[in-house]
Amino acid sequence: MNKDLGLISSASPDSSVSPNISERAENKLCLANSLKLEGNTFFKQGNLKEAIRHYHRALLYIKGVESDGSNMLQNLSAAFTETMKTKHLEGKMDPNIIERNTQLKIDCYNNLAACLLKTEHPDFDKIVFYCDEVIKLTSCNPKTHFRMAQALFKLGDYNRALESCQKSLENQLQQDSQVISLKTSCLAHLAKQTSQEKVLYSKMLGLKMNKQEF
């Protein structure tokens, strides 16, 4: 990564008023991608702690790009007159950067969920949170839905786990045997719960009838 991250070029004398937001965002995007790739290397080596740390650091830069975009929108109205005078449009965020930043965000949250699932004592609530963050951005990733299903199953939320299994299968060209197995386990647990509820209801109903006899 041979970029001079400290320099922001300008094609206009008024760049202090309207900085090149896209160039600044590009710098952050490069750093985020580099950290993500390093995290991937640590993940492959089995160093989950370092992988998680790098993905979190990458997300800080990703959120920095989002912050640049938000600030641009907030300042757009005030800067509009000056922009029209100078025809200086460098304050506009490049759509390509926004798209790449979103994909990086998806990758990092997906990878964090994958890391946590491999830890000795997984934080299943956090895995659900990470998967939710991905699903907000794209709902067609089968691995995300499967990881969500795994976490929800461990949390005992078999209905939602079943839904996530189904969504994972719907987005697969070839049905994954692991997802099918988990779906079967969800159905078995739900059937058991239903059976237990029926027994409990029968006992409660029998108790009420006995009371009425007296």
UniProtKB/TrEMBL annotation:
Keywords, in A-Z order: Repeat, TPR repeat
InterPro entries registered for this protein in UniProt: AIP/AIPL1/TTC9, TPR-like_helical_dom_sf, TPR_rpt
Start and end residues of each stretch annotated as Disordered: 1-20
Annotated transmembrane regions: none
Biased composition (Low complexity): 8-20
SMART domains from the UniProt entry: TPR
Protein name: Uncharacterized protein
Native species: Daphnia pulex
Classification lineage: Eukaryota, Metazoa, Ecdysozoa, Arthropoda, Crustacea
